[in-house]
Amino acid sequence: MRAIYKIARLELSNLFYSPVAWLLLILFVFVTGMGFAEVLERLARQQELSSNGLYAISKKLFYFTSGGLWLKVTKFFYLLMPLLTMGLVSQEFNRGSIKLLFSAPITGRHIVLGKYLGVMLYGLIMTGILLVYVIIAGSMVESFEWATVLTGLLGLYLLFGLYAAIGLFMSSLTVYPIVAAIGMFALLTVLELISGIWQEYAFVREITYWLSLGGRTNTFIAGMICSEDVFYFVIMSAMFLGFAILKLQLCRESCSFMGKLGRYMGIFVVALLLGYITSRPMMKWYYDATYTKDNTLTQASQDIVSKLDGGLKMTTYVNLFGSIHNMTTKEIKDDLARYDRYVRFKPETKMDYVFYYHVDTTTDIFKKRYPGKTLKQAAKDEAKLQNTRLSKYLTPEKIDAKIDLSDEGYRFVTLLEREDGKKAFIRVYNDMWRLPSEAEISAALKRFAMKLPRVGFLSDHDARSIVGSRNRDHSYMVAAKTFRNSLINQGFDVVDVNLGRGREVLDSLDILVVSEPLEPFTTEEIEMLSRYIEEGKNLVLAGKPKTYTYLDPLMDLLGLRFEPGVLVQRQIEEYPSNLVLSRVTESAKDISRYWEILYGYTSRAFRPLSLVMPGAAAIEQESDKGFQLIPLLETRDSSGWNELETIDFLNDTVRLNSSIGEVAGKRMTMVGLEREKAGNQQRIIVLGDADCFSMGELATTRRGIQSGNGHLVMSMFDWLSNGELPVDVSRPKNIDNKLALSMAGGATIKTVLQWILPSLLLILGVIVLFRRKGK
User: How far apart are CA 636 and CA 59, in angstroms?
Assistant: First the structure.
């Protein structure tokens, strides 16, 4: 150990007696100081001059994905380390001093570890400089995220250590330092890209993915310490140091080529074996240093996974002709990474991928894209286009024999299966994100963990149902498999309800939706629905101005009524005056998280969202039936009224006629009712426009109007399900949002870090080098 320490001290002194080490250090201070100070100054300017304030300052300074200091340092290390390490051993060979080392009573292990320790001490100096920036930020940022930032710093030092080990090994291979530097650049490039090599082969995929350096440091920078990544840096550094030690030993020994290769392969195989063991899910441990726990499942998702006793199998089915999302066998590891957070809490999860091809060859789209070709010929062309092998894909006959995916449209889906036979699908969606988020994945898993709310949509008397495809129906928001926010994708069990089948179906429901029936209910049906309400179950009643009378018997039970007439407001551009824009009320924002969010959307000063109702009836309370009434939505236009005369809103002009009882003012367009009934916390929503969550309205966009109707559905059913669904994947907000620094102070710090500190290092380096030359 004493020999290693002496060599390390000598190597460190040699570095600082070399202009290269000083120049690299000065350049490092200049680049990092400039990068840190510029962001700090910009934030100080923004805080002083902008009314928006600051948010997540620690992240923006150090670990923001596009401008954080730590990511800039990783790029600098990539350029710096080959220059720093290229002469560690090669110069000993070049000058002939290696013979003196070989003649000394030390081994190759002492030489390599000593030089490596010397470089790592140099790295500590660089880390100390970075720590200065951390201390500066910590002293100025309120509630600074020390743990997250220091975790990133740890990752940078581990990366420095790996780069140093690689550089030392490459330097031992040649007498030319520049060749060692070029070789290191080449090897680092290979380690960055190797994860994409031969990914279609499961065994090779595990090896190449583990060997890959790409993204390892980013995990630390993001505030996560994973044992797999720690072991990766330690094992890989030890492997390259082992290679360097072996190279020096072989310089003293006579050994055949195969003997040399076997010894190198022995080190390599041991490293891979250790890497395989430490990368197994059961062997991993994690520490999320972030305040908001961004790298971890939310508590709601953790609670769901903790209730999943027994095994879980996830099988992803990938169609070669997939329309929304697709992948090849080369991208399996990247897709698996999406579920890492779940496997972390349930490491026994088994994951599999099935690739197949299936498409309807009779459609015009297929005929236009593959003119005159059979399915097999089209599949061959598509496989070539995606640079994959068709032999890896099951034929339509084989996939149909394996599983029926027709209901899923043969899209990209993941099937979840439990040991007890329960199944659920995770889908992809027709939006800009496409892939499922934590909310959808956890909702699917929640089906296995507990009984979920069951929602029934009444279809009697031509009420709006979930089985129709008309614009007035609710199929899209309820059962559309490619719509992320549809109830089935958020975990709800949804059924079509027909009262003619008996009241048993009502007994199984948690929420019943009755949306604009076009005929009156029978006496027996009213009794069934009345009993449902008296049992304390949750309900949604949605009417329209011309047909609300069919809901009057149920409204009487609630002490409510729809006001006569049609709500109108000041005309917006070319739209008819009965197109009503509503907003969330003050009283609604406190009932649930989703209503609070929607309140913020509809109340913001810049481009607020509105709940659009194309023909609505106002709601008022007529009597007290023991409910607490909560106004949920109200009209934006305080000068609007219930129009009692006009029928044609497209061609006629509406006018307030007070003589027939038309009164201007805001109106309630949606109300909530709540009470304790039959041991339940009963919740009921009544709205004056069944169109506002219909298929036609949710698919409509209007110039100049920002619609929030899609958010309304989630708010309604979150409250009705007592917060059971959708799964709450919200996280605490960042608290490091205040900077104790003025614009002038930011400019001063920038001058010090960018110019004065590098200049002082330059002066110190010149003094040291001149004194060395004098000696």
Answer: 38
Helices 709-720, 593-603: axis angle to 10 degrees equals 150
Cα separations in angstroms, 158 against 5, 32, 76, 150, 153: 20, 18, 15, 12, 9
Residue 573: other Cβ atoms inside 10 A: 9
pLDDT in tens, 149-158: 999 999 999 9
Q: What are the beta bridge partners of residue 318?
A: 355
What is the radius of gyration, based on Cα positions, of the chain? 34
Task: Using DSSP bridges, classify how beta strands 628-635 and 579-584 pair: parallel, antiparallel or unpaired.
Answer: antiparallel
DSSP string spanning 518-578? Answer: SSPPPHHHHHHHHHHHHTT-EEEEE--TTTGGGGHHHHHHHTEEEPSSEEE-S--TTS-TT
Which residue in 598, 571, 570, 576 sits closest to 586, CA to CA?
A: 598
Residue 632 corresponds to which tokens in the numbers above?
A: 């949920």
Mean of pLDDT over the chain = 91
Q: pLDDT tens across 525-578, in order?
A: 999 999 999 999 999 999 999 999 999 999 999 999 999 999 998 888 788 999
Helices of type H across 17-95: 19-49, 57-58, 69-85, 90-95
Q: If we measure between CA atoms, which residue out of 441, 474, 439 comes closest to residue 718?
A: 439
In whole angstroms, give the CA distance from residue 419 to residue 410: 25
Amino acid type, 508: S
Q: What are the φ and ψ backbone dihedral angles of 315, each rounded to 5 degrees?
A: -115, 120
What is the spatial distance between Cα 296 and Cα 288, in angstroms, rounded to a whole number? 7
Task: Say how far apart CA 378 and CA 365 lie, in whole Å.
Answer: 12
Please say whether the beta carbons of 150 and 134 come within 8 A. yes
pLDDT digits (tens, 9 = 90+) for 459-488: 999 999 898 788 899 988 888 899 999 999
What does the alpha-carbon distance between residue 640 and residue 590 come to, in Å, rounded to a whole number? 26
To the nearest 5 percent, what fractions of the chain are helix, strand and coil? Answer: 55, 15, 35
* pLDDT value, residue 198: 67
The structure tokens listed for 139 are 């002293």
d(CA 197, CA 129): 38
Cβ neighbour number for residue 556 with a 10 Å cutoff? 14
pLDDT the model gives residue 202: 67
Q: For the chain, first and last CA: distance in Å? A: 30
Q: For residues 33 and 339, what is the distance between their CA atoms, to the nearest angstrom?
A: 38
Per-residue CA distances from 359 to 275, 362, 639 (Å): 41, 9, 55
Q: Which run of H or E residues covers position 402?
A: helix 396-402
Express each pLDDT in 704-755 by its tens digit: 899 999 899 999 999 999 999 999 999 999 999 999 999 999 999 999 999 9
Is residue 452 within 8 Å of 492, Cβ to Cβ?
Answer: yes
Q: Which residues contact 320 (CB under 8 A, 6 or more apart)?
A: 326, 355, 356, 357, 379, 382, 383, 386, 390, 393
Q: Average pLDDT of 104-131?
A: 90
3-state secondary structure 467-530: CCCCCCCCHHHHHCCCCCCCHHHHCCEEEEECHHHCCHHHHCCCEEEEECCCCCCCHHHHHHHH
How many CA atoms, within 13 angstroms, populate the side-chain half-sphere of residue 138?
A: 12
Tokens 């570095």 sit on residue = 15
CA 314 to chain centre: 19
Q: What is the DSSP string of 360-396?
A: -TTSHHHHHHSTT--HHHHHHHHHHHTT--GGGSB-H
631 — alpha (psi -120 to 50), left (phi > 0) or beta? beta
Amino acid identity of 643?
E
Q: Which amino acid would we find at residue 11?
A: E
Per-residue pLDDT averaged across 444-454, rounded?
Answer: 91
Cα 266 from Cα 231, distance rounded (Å): 19
